[in-house]
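For the sake of transparency, this paper describes our internal protein records without simplification. The remainder of this section carries one protein's record, kept here as part of the documentation:
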Amino acid sequence: MTHNIPEPTADLLRAVLEALDIPYPATIGDGEIHDRLIATRAMHAKIALHNVLDDGPDLGIEWTTAYLRARLAEHPPTGYRAVGDRRPGGERP
């Protein structure tokens, strides 16, 4: 896909999308873990956007993007069953 966004900005946008675009929970019981993860990941995305856009330290967009990805790696979208996940043996959850 072609866009007119400078690559460092596009990379930050991809990282923000990565933060927010996690699989939906498969059951109500999985929702609590999902909600906690999405809230934490959204908080880190919000901090990154503030750092780049207004009141944050001027560390540069590349540093901010790397920092966001490092925080996301600390909070991977795991620990709950997601829509489409399969259990051992191939049956659906």
User: Anything to note?
Assistant: Confidence is low (pLDDT under 50) at residues 89-93. Residues 34-78 form one domain. The CA atoms of residues 64 and 70 lie 10 Å apart.
